[in-house]
Amino acid sequence: MAKPLHIGLIGGIGVAATVVYYQRLCAAVSAMGLPLELTLVQADVQELIRNNLADNRDAQAKVYARLIDRLAAAGCDCAAITSLGGHFCFDETVARAALPLISAVAPLDEFFAAEGLHRVGLLGTRVVMRTRLYGQLARTEAVALDAETEALGQRYQDMAVAGTCSDEDRAVFFDAGRRMTDEMGAQAIVLAGTDLNLAFDGSHDPGYRVIDALDVHVDVLAGLATGRTML
Q1: Contact 185/207 with Cβ under 8 angstroms?
Q2: Same fold, 7-104+215-226 and 106-213
Q3: Which of 182-216 are b and which e, b meaning 16 or more Cβ less than 10 Å from the residue's Cβ?
Q4: C-alpha distance across the termini of the chain, in Å
Q5: 200: closest CA among 220, 179, 170, 231?
Q6: Per-residue pLDDT tens for 164-211?
Q7: pTM as predicted
Q8: Which CATH class is domain 106-213?
Q9: In this structure, which topology does domain 7-104+215-226 adopt according to CATH?
Q10: What sign does the CA torsion over 59, 83, 216, 189 have?
Q11: Is 209 within 8 Å of 188 (Cβ atoms)?
Q12: In the chain, what are the domain boundaries?
């Protein structure tokens, strides 16, 4: 086995996503009977939203780089952004980062292919849906409700900032997923927004397969944290 790594998380974007990352990463490492070395730093969700909507990648990358410097000073071996929407400036951040940055997007294409999925539907931020996960899916086709990207993206953003999901929010997201499966041939709906676990919390059955992209990222981080996989 490789050397277990000290994981650094950039959280706060939003709070619910940070909490679920922490919970699931702790559970995954604990299930292997190993300790977890983890440090968390706090980003500003409102600053991220402004930079994301303006496509101001350099500005957000500089913010991330400062936070990654803190993680490096704390002894972390690698860093991760706890938001798929926050990956809009991933390449720009990598160029400035003092630590290796572990992508939440890159592992998805391999995961979907391994699951035999040829077409998936996306729910998440405006940019994630509009760019089809930043154009990084090579083996699986992604679809989204293009005419409703703005409305769905705004609803997702509001939910993420609030950290709570109303019954109306859940109904809208569930219906959007249903239409992508029934009308667009999606074999599964991908929660490509880390705060969507607030809506798809397991207490209600949407009637179709749901894949939480967060779980794929956490599995990668757990492998690094336990030495199961190498950088």
Answers
A1: no
A2: yes
A3: eeeebbbbbbbbbbbbbbbeeeeebebebbbbbeb
A4: 12
A5: 170
A6: 999 999 999 999 999 999 999 999 999 999 899 999 999 999 999 999
A7: 0.92
A8: alpha beta
A9: Rossmann fold (3.40.50)
A10: negative
A11: yes
A12: 7-104+215-226, 106-213
